[in-house]
User: Which sequence fits this backbone?
């Protein structure tokens, strides 16, 4: 049994009727791009990650921007750390906050880079 999550999600925020036209068009384009590619669940997540880094999936090979830097955060699970990547403003302005982009699929099929 998994421990109860610290995150509460309001399912109404994911109602498809609230999606704007531009986002719907973008999603349709992605679906078409991925239609003929390998399925990660058929080749396995580890193999798919490698294929993705080598540019062997329908999406272009990832580009890791040199401006970012990596670090880790402690996990609530003993002996485990959570990797992250941070980008500072290129104009030298000190940030007053952060934007956390948490994407579960990205952590399974890619990395923080």
Assistant:
């Amino acid at each position: 049994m998994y421990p109860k999550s610290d995150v509460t999600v309001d399912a109404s925020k994911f109602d498809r009727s609230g999606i704007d036209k531009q986002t719907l068009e973008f999603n349709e384009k992605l679906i078409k791009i991925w239609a003929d590619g390998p399925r990660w669940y058929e080749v396995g997540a580890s193999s798919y990650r490698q294929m993705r880094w080598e540019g062997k999936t329908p999406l272009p090979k990832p580009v890791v921007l040199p401006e970012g830097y990596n670090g880790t955060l402690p996990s609530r699970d003993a002996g485990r750390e959570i990797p992250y990547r941070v980008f500072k403003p290129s104009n030298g302005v000190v940030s007053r906050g952060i934007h956390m982009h948490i994407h579960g699929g990205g952590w399974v099929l890619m990395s923080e880079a």
Summary: The chain has a mean pLDDT of 85. Residues 21-34 form the longest helix (14 residues). The radius of gyration is 17 Å. The beta strands are 69-74, 81-86.
